[in-house]
Design a protein that fits this description.
Blueprint: E1 11-18, H1 25-37, E2 45-50, E3 56-63, E4 76-78, E5 83-91, H2 94-103, H3 113-124, E6 134-142, E7 147-152, E8 161-165, E9 168-172, H4 175-180, H5 190-199, E10 213-214, E11 219-224, E12 227-232, H6 244-262, E13 269-272, H7 277-288, E14 295-300, H8 309-318, E15 322-327, H9 330-335, H10 337-343, H11 352-363, E16 368-370, H12 375-379, H13 384-401, H14 404-414, H15 418-427, H16 433-441, H17 446-457, H18 478-504, E17 509-511, H19 517-524, H20 528-531, H21 537-542, H22 548-551, H23 562-567, H24 571-579, H25 588-609
Parallel strand pairs: 13-14, 13-16, 14-15, 16-17
Antiparallel strand pairs: 1-3, 1-9, 2-3, 4-5, 5-6, 6-7, 7-11, 8-9, 8-10, 11-12
Helix pairs in contact: 2-3, 5-17, 6-7, 6-19, 11-18, 13-16, 13-18, 14-15, 15-16, 16-18, 24-25
């Protein structure tokens, strides 16, 4: 078994206020309101702290997965009282960082990774953030310099939102906590609303609120004297330095170390298990590192083509796991709607599956679960890896012939179906991999999303373009470009955000071993011809323990039977909302978008009157 460190931190909710002068009473009461709004993220403890100068205050709610003693209490201060932290996450290389700091003469009081972060910041400042391997959102206050630091992990596994008002910086783990503070306006942001209807999730760094931003993944922000400066400390990079001779062994070693590290904790840890390759690979690697009789949790939809329950059961038995199956039908899923909508921090076209699964796992007695998020995007598991480059190349050819824009205008006006309208919309814009990707993954066209946005804001909007640096000209191949887009859009804005919010709604921590820094660094150095072979061949070769019924099956996306339910038992909940809007919502995912937005707006209005 790979050696793993004890005493990592806990999954939590964090909040704070940094002000150029002493905090006003309204700010202090706002901080307490944010802490209460985050209680579901940390039901095992809470704390507040104010700086001696009165210009900074932190709040923290604690879910005790690690170090369940008082030593893990936050906010935590050191040196003596100069540096204070509020932190949500787990640093998997903290033992290594601690040894390095001890060798330079640093003495520790606790055995927590929280103190390691503080000591690292004390010694190396913001440069130390790049050395952290794990998932985290944190804030550190330096009382002597009267400076604050906010930081977020590479992929944005843990969330962090902030607003600035008259030089005061206010932050929290969730948008709704900022709303509950009474210090943030509920006014909508047109780009955020437009981006949601375009993609089914709100693209960071924006949010649905005009005055609230998301700290971008891989960034830290320094606040001094009422001014905030953002800096990127890590960016996804694809190289071609790896070789076929060592690819499988290097990938396997990185996966073994990651999975073993992600099982660290003082509380029961389980695994979300589907009938697919990714979660089965984690279970196989867990057994290979000495974690036997893992508790696994699966959803089953009896009598539907989407039902992966029997496959998950068979895989769990093969590896000797303690398996739990939750059978879900249209009625039981519908019964979860109200709680799911209340849990949504921002609307999403997805998330109900994670919400139901997380609640089931928490009731099953675990405090943390591992998930296969990130594997498809790293190893080429989606049809987008072939489809998007083909679509972009076709667009380039039509543009060269001068036929793209005219064809797009005609097709968009007469197209009878959603997909054709999205392609027509693409043809009216410049050809690029990013535009082809948005067409492939999109929900509504530009005109439709603009009309929906105007329905909420009463104003026109500017098209929200994908940042140009995300196009494939930065990457060795178009397939690498698709991988970048999947990881920085679909994973970051939807899968990770839904995973965090919907798991923490049940006081459950979600872990993503495929997005571990060691795994990402080992895999992204490989050429696309090795890394992105069809059928995630590299992953399957790196985990030869996979049973044949898993290793030989085609890619299937795990989801509820949404299309069947929306057109059937759920029809009354969706169609009424859909018909009241100025864009056609003829597919289940379009109806779900409208439903999700309407539900979120109702919650915001309800909160404003509480």
């Amino acid at each position: 078994m790979v050696c793993r460190p004890p005493n990592l931190a806990t999954m939590c909710g964090i909040a704070g206020i940094l002000s150029p002068g002493p905090l006003a009473p309204a700010a202090r009461s706002g901080l307490t309101a944010m802490r209460e709004a985050l209680r579901h993220r940390g039901p095992d403890g809470q704390g507040e702290w104010s700086s001696p100068c009165g210009a900074a205050a932190f709040a923290h709610t604690r879910l005790a997965v690690f170090d369940r003693t008082a030593a893990g209490h936050q906010p935590m201060s050191i040196a003596p009282g100069r540096f204070t932290i509020t932190y949500n996450g787990a640093i998997y290389n903290f033992a290594e960082l601690r040894r390095s700091l001890e060798q330079s003469g640093v003495q520790f009081v606790t055995a927590t990774d929280t103190e390691v972060i503080l000591r690292l910041y004390e010694q190396r400042g913001s440069a130390g953030i790049a050395q952290l391997r794990g998932m985290f959102a944190l804030a550190v206050w330096d009382e002597q310099e009267r400076t604050g630091l906010l930081a977020r992990d590479r992929f944005g596994i843990k969330p962090l939102y902030y607003t600035e008002r008259d030089g005061t910086l206010i932050f929290a783990s969730e948008v709704r906590a900022l709303l509950r503070s009474g210090l943030v306006s509920p006014e909508l942001d047109s780009d955020g609303v437009y981006g949601f209807f375009r993609t089914g999730s709100v693209p960071e760094p924006g949010t649905l609120l005009r005055d609230v931003k998301c700290l971008p993944a891989g960034h830290h922000a320094t606040w001094t004297g009422g001014r905030t400066t953002l800096q990127q400390y890590w960016q996804l990079h694809f190289a071609e330095s790896g070789t076929a001779e060592t690819a499988v062994a290097d990938t396997r070693q990185a996966l073994l170390e990651s999975v073993d590290g992600h099982f660290a904790g003082d509380a029961p840890i389980g695994l979300f298990l589907s009938g697919g390759t990714d979660s089965a690979a984690i279970l196989a690697l867990a057994q290979a590192t000495g974690h036997h009789q893992v508790q696994t949790f699966a959803l089953s939809f009896p009598g539907t083509p989407e039902d992966e329950g029997p496959l998950a059961q068979r895989t769990a038995e093969y590896f000797g796991a303690r398996h739990h199956t939750c059978e879900v039908d249209a009625a039981t899923a519908r019964a979860a709607f109200e709680s799911y909508c209340q849990a949504a921090d921002q609307p999403s076209v997805d998330g109900l599956n994670t919400f139901v699964m997380a609640r089931f796992a928490r009731e099953g007695g675990v405090t943390a679960v591992l998930s296969g998020i990130g594997a498809d995007e790293l190893f080429g598991g989606y049809p987008t890896f072939a489809g998007v480059p083909r679509l972009a190349a076709w667009h380039h050819r039509l543009r060269w012939l001068g036929a793209a824009a005219p064809l797009g205008r005609v097709a968009e006006s007469v197209a009878p179906d959603v997909r054709t309208r999205r392609v027509a919309d693409m043809l009216r814009r410049a050809p690029s991999l990013a535009n082809a990707y948005q067409t492939y993954r999109g929900i509504f066209t530009h005109r439709e999303a603009a009309a929906l946005t105007a329905g909420y804001l009463g104003e026109g909007v500017t098209p929200l373009a994908l940042p140009p640096q995300l196009d494939h000209d930065l990457d060795p191949t178009p397939a690498d470009g698709v991988s970048r887009l999947e990881l920085t859009h679909y994973v970051r804005n939807q899968l990770l955000r839904d995973g965090d919010v919907m798991s923490m709604a049940s006081g459950l921590e979600l872990r993503t071993p495929f997005l571990d820094a060691g795994v990402v660094d080992a895999v992204t150095r490989l050429p696309a011809s090795i890394r992105l072979q069809p059928g995630k061949a590299l992953l399957r070769r790196a985990v030869p323990e996979l049973p044949p019924w898993i290793a030989g099956q085609p890619k299937r996306c795990f989801q509820f039977p949404f299309a069947r339910w929306v057109d059937g038992e759920w029809q009354d909940a969706f169609t009424v909302r859909a018909h009241a809007h100025p864009a056609p919502a003829e597919t289940w995912y379009r109806q779900w978008c409208v439903f999700s937005m309407e539900s979120w707006m109702a919650n915001v209005k309800r909160a404003a009157h509480d």
